[in-house]
Amino acid sequence: MSYATQKLAEEKVFKDPVHRYIHVRDQVIWDLVNSKEFQRLRRIKQLGTSYLVFHGAEHSRFNHSLGVYEIVRRISDDVFHGRPEWDEGERLTVLCAALLHDLGHGPFSHSFEKVFDVDHEEFTRAILIGDTEVNAILKKVSPDFPADVAEVIAKTYSNKQVVSLISSQIDADRMDYLQRDAYYTGVSYGHFDMERILRVMRPLDDQVVIKSSGMHAVEDYIMSRYQMYWQVYFHPVARSAEVILRKILQRAKELSENGYEFQQPPTHFLAFFDRSFTLADYLALDEGVLMTYFQLWINERDSILADLCERFVNRRLFQYVDFDPGTDYKKLGELSALFKKAGIDPEYYLIDDSTSDLPYDFYRPGEEEERLPIQLLMPNGDIKELSRLSQIVDAISGKRRTDYKLYFPAELLIDGKKKAIKQQILEMLREGGV
Amino acid sequence: MLQEHARIVDFIATAEGVTGRKKLQKMVYIMKKLNVPFREKYEFHIYGPYSEELTARIEELCDMGFVTEALEDKGSYVQYKYAVTDEGMEFRNAVGASIPKNPEAAALLNAKSARFLELTSTLLYFDHLVRDEQIAKLHSVKGKLNFTEAEIDEAYRFLDELEQLKLA
What we know:
The complex is a heterodimer.
Chain A: E1 7-16, E2 20-26, H1 27-33, H2 36-39, H3 61-79, H4 91-100, H5 109-116, H6 120-129, H7 133-141, H8 145-154, H9 160-166, H10 172-185, H11 194-200, E3 201-204, E4 207-211, H12 215-233, H13 236-257, H14 270-273, H15 279-283, H16 287-297, H17 303-313, E5 319-322, H18 325-341, H19 346-349, E6 351-357, E7 375-377, E8 383-385, H20 386-389, H21 391-396, E9 401-408, H22 419-430
Parallel strand pairs in A: 4-7
Antiparallel strand pairs in A: 1-2, 3-4, 5-9, 6-9, 7-8
Helix pairs in contact in A: 1-4, 3-4, 3-10, 4-8, 4-9, 5-13, 6-8, 10-12, 13-17, 16-17, 18-22
Chain B: H1 2-14, E1 18-19, H2 21-33, E2 43-45, E3 48-50, H3 52-64, E4 67-73, E5 78-84, H4 86-95, H5 103-110, H6 114-125, H7 131-141, H8 149-164
Antiparallel strand pairs in B: 1-5, 2-3, 4-5
Helix pairs in contact in B: 1-4, 2-6, 6-7, 6-8
């Protein structure tokens, strides 16, 4: 028996709060789960700083990756199995891609990637094809197998059905994270009838379609996603923590570049400051490492770094007001000048932040849109795009919602010297329309 | 954040307007790959490298009144034409005054068709591969477009030309 088809003597199961059990029979999958690169995902939280708002949200990318694997396993082994439109030869490729799709995520990815201009997807690829335990396992399947799995995750794989199971507007990744994040945050949004959706998914030509009888379950899924984005993922307080995190990393980088002598040198970050990092440098990081530095840097002599770290560790976050950059960018300049006069560095204490989401969109022929639509399979075999039949989805299709906030440390503007300037700042901030 | 918005405004202004969503996406991607510091994250989509962040940023700039998006009906298809408004130039001058310009590169890119830029950006997306593998991958993901050998040669020549400009 080849390694690709080798089964465990007994099925292994992981108890899981979302899917009840996650089933593993393939030796390859079991070996991948036990690789050190996959185990590292236990030390990276799925929702970054959201735990500072939703205290239950301490779950990791390890949990989520197993969940995506389980959904794809069920689609492959139960829903699609035996259907002529599905290539059974893709089974192991899609299972591995599902399991490993987030492998390149780093600690607090969102902030880390912004400050150091790196991309977790490039690291995913590097782990899959580089000198790693994961690569050694995948190569035992076949020499080309690591690259095949990487291509599925990068969406450049030739079989588009396989790609769309992992990345599309209704994919296993989203189906898992919506339910999982809802469970761990404790919110009542995010729930939908995944069982129903799985039952009505069908492989067809180069895509995956949904039988029209499952339309209402898909509507529920899209609305769940919409609510999760605005109620959980874009929560303004979690964004405040992200802002501080970003500024900590930026400050450490700036200090290092200026020759500042750290009491706790940023050893793990140095290769990222000068962009000489290797894959090994990246894999040596996790959220435990970052939090250790933040704890130690609370005692640094640099008052800005120490203050930002103290804020993050002890959850003394920035306040915020709504902000419209289209009309307020000039006032932002004025505010920035006032912050300087007040002795508060605006680079680190006056931060604008935006976030936006497009809940659903569809490809309009000739308009160069880039999102593949959710297609419904009608009883007569015709295909119809979801928003043509669903009034609810039509109402939100193509409608982007954006939110801008301006973050600042409110208590620094109340106490201490230069009260008149600080009062002026507070009035500008309170006026709204900053 | 506003610096990134200003950088996009500046690029559209430097290119003296851009016609086509796809074209704008690919122009920014190619510039980014040539080390111009655009921060938008790209992934591979239907037409090759595509940035959801860039799409969002353009929509925001349109909402702010800094960029206009005019729909042009070309008969069998429609195109979006982007131009910077006076308010957009004021914004750019206030927020992004220090952004270096690359007018020659912007003009060279803007003179090319969306199809050609799709080809060029797709080759760049696979720049971790050797040339033969890059071309094989191009045909694999863009088989329906039937890019010719001459087009591919021209794309590589074009990239060489851009690289010689030493973009800032």
